[in-house]
Specification:
heterodimer; A: 3 domains; three-stranded antiparallel beta sheet; B: 68% helix
Chain lengths: 846, 423
């Protein structure tokens, strides 16, 4: 690794920090110690220090007066204590320095609390006693030369001070001279002097009693910016990733998650009686018979698999039932093509015009003929038809109610909602009949015949957008509170509210959100800012379709109450149980930290490239200079040339060669458009082959690029090591900023991609003898190739047992129909960053 | 005249790139036209279409309160075919304007005025880019491309300003003033550039002639040319619209009083949304005064480098204008490469550019969350416009610092390269 020898001096002087700490006056030290002691005391669990010493108004009596003095020094946790100490120290130190230790004690410890004011001795007396005791003077060099001469916090940079120190401490002379002889830059030399000065200052007073280790450690930090610019970013980045992951793992704990609550008062869930019972069941049975007869008919003379496919006869029947119930009915034909597969169908929908409304707002009820799992949704469709007839007779609706019957859950609602907003493609018919702005949508799925036990609520939208949490909460409150039906989410049928189950629920939610596909007919509504959920009855129980009908009636009544669009509650949340969630403020730092690790690295690399790697200077710590290989020689020449240039320019700042890194990074990001186009355009039968071809391309392409770069591309000067760092810096900068932007839109996707890209922060060009470089870089490349987008796809498909073709067909369909952009992130953010990581690693072989 | 092959290649590539973009993504121009970052009430192509529609039907274009641009644009754009049926000619017109702007930039760069003027000679003049590279930076800047594809009328203001400067550096002060008059006529704010531009013309004149002209007379003369140019354009406008006060209030009144608070990348809209009406006039005054005050300060401090005053003022305008868009930023970025020799002295480029990159990604994302997803609110977008302005201001402050440092080194050659500390 090209280690810069003359990195800039640290932006702060650690010696100064230490001398500050060393000069803290007596009482300040005492207070800090006590705070530390109490914090340590709190770590045990037997005796609650907080309970004992906190200022609780109800607990105050004559016997517990001590609380008035203990509460400022007892804290609830490390950060509380640390930040308070941080805030307190400079103030208290200043005060004590100016007013004396005794006054500080008197004021701090309660004599000055007000009720004993008369007892406070006059300040003059205190000062006199203090003068006798010489409290301030007891500590080493509290009043130091620099403060007297140069005021507080100034760098001592005059030569005579150094010489005076030299005169006093001739022992140190050798040490002082050494760096001079070593040829350090003047600024470094000055800094060393400063350190020496501080060290000497301190040493004389404490009679050299402290160990030398700390001293030399601090001096090393000061003289060795390598640590700051090379090691520290690695450590920080790694910490960011670890903390980001741990953060996510903490979320299921009670301390970090919250109980759900209804935020929008107008919803009033479960406050009305649901009347959908008794005689309506006969209507339900009647409708079901009619539909079953049609299915039977279709089975006898229709095409293959007729019980699942909707036929024109069925949509005609739905049409006529809705019309007979008194709704305005219309149909819409649509057609989509994706990856060589055609999808077509006909939506039937009817509108109940609100007797009390002005047709400016509407609620949507959807019952697709096929559920999201491609099952026949006979009970769901029948229930929706029954509800349509039932709702039509009520006079209390203030919003229109639209009943939509799409032939399947994937395409139908998408075509309908696009056309509702006039944003449909040419292959989709326009809607002849419309109503007002849609306030919410409910999807009914009941694809089996037996009675059910619980209600499964599906809420994930396209691209990870979620409905307002109030809608979900209302559904849970009505199902659980009013109807006595339990609610499930994320297919967690047995949820015992343990940490594991909560985490599992979160992770399942994150997977769906991250992949960004439509999980049901409701998902298509989300991009239009229409909150929607799917209700799926599940399990064996005693609840029948009437109970589901009542739940939906009650939900519609709640939505009917809305005065404005759902906006009160959260749009960004992770649910871990039907009544527990974490909101964005709590979970976002997790993804942001992971995205931030790339930015930290990018900034550090940028700063590193600003300074020359000058191997002439001997002050580099031993070990960082490996034996010079061929690739090392070339850059040295360049560096030499540039050093001479700097001397003429007279600036200590290195000129960065930006053109190649910039064009390489932007070019590779644009190259991502090729796989993006390929995987969304080719026919579905070629998907598997394309994936495997792409795995091979991913193995070969980085090596070709690395070889081209190292040999100067044939047209330009050979690349200098600085440019490798710049390439990495730009790539990580782009990755970091894309991921942090993404985290605000789709937290889970950003988190997943961030984790998969995490190794890229730490990959660099390996230098050293060939025997070391080759095996390491080949091993690294092999490992990285396991993390390439197609390899991850193959791995996940193998693990879950889903064919690659199915996944990619679904993805292409999402791209073409749902407007899903997960692929854009994969191919234009993840893949280029990964490719650049491989190129860097591969370049160590050339 | 020998044809510069590199220049032809750059200009051709820029043209082809733009053409490819509109052919491959036919919906891109309309998408960009609708973006608030690109189109503001005073440069929106959509609003221009509205004005054009009214104009061609003999209704006053300012009826309806949508159109706020200069009236002379109307006859100009009515010559082009209808954009809904045939968008390519209009697009090509904009491409050509972009190329002309780039040509003006190349002229400015070739004059070497940025490194060597009458009173100033930069210390690092060997570090510079030639005109073609500067033009390439302008032409391939994504912000310029976005502005061009969005058919924002700011590009015409941009060409007015760039031509004013390029005429000034080539010693043609009459054309410079007329071009500035055109720009001021279109967008009002370029009038603030009069003083530095006149100084630039003055320096150029006194360098070329044996004796320096009379300063006061020179300024007066040029002021008169500028006012004459503007008056002529206003006269033509009256001929077109027929009602002087109507178009004055609808255009310049609109610029000055900022009644339309559609979000944009600037700082004004949010302030004026939040403000009580009784304070509106006061703060309008303060904001405008603040914007105009930079002219005096920068002119006095950087008197020796008039072209640099113009550059930094354009940066100030890009931040503090009432209706800024990315086209203003792109004009500022276009002039920055002229100061390639200052780059080694700049200290926060990486951070400024990172801030700009972050805000150009997060801005659309937060706007989406606010307007489309409904899960964010106005504060999201405003926060990002603050970051954007911060990035621009850091860049601006940094380049001004570098220019001052350069001047200081010229005065103290012996202390070149020493560390300085701001106190």
């Amino acid at each position: 690794m090209a280690t810069p020898a003359a990195l800039p001096p640290l932006p702060f002087n650690p010696g100064r920090v230490r001398s500050y700490l060393v000069r803290l006056p007596l009482f300040t030290r005492l207070v800090l110690l006590v705070i530390l002691a109490f914090w340590l005391l709190e770590l045990q669990t037997i005796w609650s220090v907080v309970e004992w010493g906190a200022l609780i108004p109800n607990e105050i009596n004559l016997g517990t007066m001590y609380r008035l003095n203990t509460y400022p020094i007892i804290h609830t946790g490390f950060f509380h204590a640390f930040l308070n100490a941080l805030a307190l120290t400079p103030l208290l130190e200043r005060f004590e320095a100016e007013h004396g230790t005794l006054t500080s004690i008197a004021l701090f410890v309660g004599l000055g609390l007000g009720y004993l004011k008369v007892l406070v001795p006059p300040e003059k007396v205190l000062r006199w006693i203090e003068g006798k005791l010489n409290l301030l003077g007891r500590l080493p060099h509290y009043v130091s030369v620099d403060q007297k001469t140069y005021g507080r916090d100034y760098i001592y940079n005059s030569a005579h001070l150094v010489s005076s120190v030299r005169r006093k401490f001739p022992v140190n002379n050798a040490e002082l001279r050494a760096p001079q002889q070593a040829g350090l830059s003047p600024s470094t030399r000055r800094n060393i002097r400063l350190n020496l000065l501080v060290v000497v200052d301190w040493e004389t007073s404490s009679n050299g009693s402290r160990s030398m280790a700390l001293k030399s450690a601090i001096r090393n930090l000061r003289n060795n910016p390598q640590l700051l610019f090379v090691r520290l970013p690695n450590i920080l980045s790694f910490l960011c990733i670890v903390v980001g992951v741990v953060w996510l793992l903490l979320l299921p704990l009670n301390d970090y998650s919250r109980q759900t609550y209804i935020s929008e008062n107008a919803l009033l869930p479960g406050q009305v009686h649901a009347y959908f019972t008794g005689s309506e069941q006969n209507i339900f049975r009647g409708y079901k018979k009619e539909l079953q007869a049609l299915i039977q008919e279709g089975r006898e003379n229709g095409p293959q698999n007729p019980e699942v496919e909707s036929t024109p006869a069925i949509s005609n029947k739905i049409y006529s039932i809705l019309q007979a119930a008194g709704l305005k009915v219309a149909t819409q034909k649509y057609e989509y093509t994706s990856a060589g597969i055609g999808y077509q169908g006909e939506n039937v929908y009817g509108i109940i015009h609100a007797p009390r409304g002005d047709a400016t707002e509407a609620i949507v009820l959807v019952a697709a003929w096929k559920t999201a799992d491609d099952e026949l949704n006979l009970n769901g469709v029948t229930l929706a038809l029954t509800l349509a007839r039932y709702f039509k007779r009520w006079s209390l609706w203030s919003k229109d109610i639209i009943f939509v019957f799409p032939p399947d859950s994937k395409t139908g609602t998408q075509a309908w909602i696009d056309a509702y907003h006039d944003l449909h493609p040419a292959s989709v018919q326009s809607l002849p009949l419309k109503s007002g702005a849609l306030q919410g949508a409910l999807v009914i799925e009941y694809p089996f015949e037996n009675h059910f036990h619980t209600l499964h609520i599906v809420y994930d939208g396209v691209n990870g957008q979620l409905p307002n949490l109030d809608l979900f909460n209302t559904a849970v409150a009505i199902a659980g509170g009013q109807m006595g039906i339990g609610a499930n989410l994320q297919e967690m049928w047995k949820h015992d509210d343990s940490y594991q189950d909560r985490l599992k629920t979160i992770l399942r939610g994150m997977t769906k959100q991250g992949l960004g596909y439509a999980t049901g007919a409701h998902s298509s509504f989300m991009p239009y800012h229409i909150d929607a959920i799917t209700l799926q009855p599940k399990g064996e129980g005693w609840e029948d379709e009437m109970a589901l009908g009542r739940t939906i009636e009650s939900l519609c009544r709640s939505l009917n109450n809305l005065l404005e669009h759902l906006h009160q509650s959260f749009f960004f949340y992770l649910l871990m149980q039907s009544n527990r969630f974490v909101s964005i403020g709590t979970y976002l730092p997790s993804a942001m930290l992971i995205a931030g690790n790339f930015t930290i690295m990018a900034i550090a690399l940028w700063m590193r490239t600003g300074y020359y790697s000058d191997s002439n200077k001997p002050s580099v710590p031993a070990g960082s200079e490996g034996p010079k290989s061929k690739s090392d020689q070339k850059p040295d020449l360049v560096a030499q040339k540039e050093v001479t240039e700097t001397k003429t320019v007279g600036s200590a700042v290195a000129e960065r060669v930006l053109a190649l890194p910039l064009s390489l990074v932007s070019g590779l990001h644009l190259l991502g458009l090729v796989p993006l186009w390929t995987f969304n355009t080719i026919f579905h039968q070629y998907f598997t082959a394309a994936t495997y071809i792409f795995v091979v391309v991913d193995i070969v392409l980085p090596l070709i690029l690395a070889a081209l770069l190292s040999n100067g591309l044939g047209i330009a000067r050979p690349i200098v090591p600085q440019q490798y760092l710049l390439i990495k810096s730009f790539a990580l900068l782009l990755l970091g900023l894309s991921l942090s932007t993404l985290a605000t839109l789709n937290f889970s996707l950003s988190f997943m991609i961030g984790l998969l890209c995490a190794p890229l922060s730490f990959i660099t060009r390996i230098q050293g003898p060939a025997a070391v470089r080759y095996p390491i870089s080949i091993l690294g490349l092999a490992l990285l190739n396991l993390l390439s987008p197609p390899a991850v796809l193959i791995g996940v498909c193998w693990y879950t047992g889903v064919p690659i073709e199915t996944v990619l067909t679904q993805a292409a369909f999402g791209w073409d129909v749902w407007g899903m952009w997960t692929q854009v992130v994969v191919w234009c953010v993840w893949w280029p960053a990964w490719l650049i990581g491989c190129v860097l690693l591969g370049s160590s072989m050339f | 005249m020998a044809v510069d092959r590199r220049k032809v290649a750059v200009f051709g590539a820029a043209f082809v790139l733009r053409l490819l973009l509109i052919c491959l993504f036919p919906s891109l121009p309309d998408l960009l036209t609708g973006r608030v970052e690109v189109s503001t009430p005073v440069n929106s192509f959509k609003r221009l279409q509205e004005g054009l529609y009214l104009y061609t039907r003999d209704v006053s274009p300012y009826d309806g309160g949508v159109f706020h641009q200069a009236p002379l644009l109307l006859p100009l754009f009515s010559l082009l075919p209808d954009v809904t049926t045939n968008p390519v000619p209009t697009a090509i017109f904009y491409f050509l304007v972009d190329l002309l702007n780039a040509h003006a930039l190349a002229t400015i760069s070739a004059s070497g005025q940025s490194v060597q003027s009458r009173l100033h000679s930069a210390m690092r003049k060997h570090i510079r880019w030639d005109g073609t590279s500067v033009a390439a930076w302008f032409l391939f800047n994504p912000f310029t491309i976005a502005t061009c594809l969005a058919r924002s009328t700011s590009v015409l203001t941009t060409s007015g300003i760039l031509f004013a400067v390029s005429s000034a550096v080539s010693g043609n002060s009459l054309n410079a003033m007329l071009a500035l008059g055109f720009a001021s006529y279109l967008s009002l704010y370029p009038a603030l550039l009069f003083v530095p531009l006149a100084l630039l013309c003055y320096d150029q004149r006194s360098q070329n002639s044996a004796q320096a002209p009379n300063t006061a007379l020179f300024i007066l003369q040029h002021g008169a040319i500028l006012s004459g140019g503007i008056a002529g354009l206003l006269g033509l406008s009256v001929l077109i619209t027929g009602n002087f006060w109507e178009f004055m209030t609808a255009t310049y009144g609109f610029h000055l009083l900022v009644p339309d608070l559609t979000p944009n990348v600037g700082l004004w809209w949010y302030f004026f949304i939040e403000m009580f009406d009784s304070f509106r006039e006061f703060f309008l005054g303060v904001f405008w005064l603040h914007l105009a005050s930079y002219v005096g300060g920068l002119t006095a401090r950087l008197r020796r480098q008039p072209l640099f005053i113009i550059t930094s003022l354009l940066g100030v305008f890009a931040v503090f204008k009432p209706y800024p868009s990315i086209s203003d930023a792109s004009l500022f970025f276009a002039l920055l490469p002229l100061y390639r020799h200052l780059f080694p002295l700049m200290r926060y480029t990486f951070f400024a550019i990172s801030a700009l990159l972050y805000s150009s990604l997060l801005g659309p994302a937060f706007y989406h969350l606010w307007i489309y997803a409904g899960s964010g609110n106005a504060n999201f977008f405003y926060a990002i416009t603050l970051v954007w302005s911060l990035g621009l201001s850091i860049l601006l402050a940094d380049v001004i610092f570098a220019a001052l440092r350069d001047e200081w080194e010229q005065d103290h050659p012996e202390r070149k390269g020493e560390e300085v500390k701001q106190v």
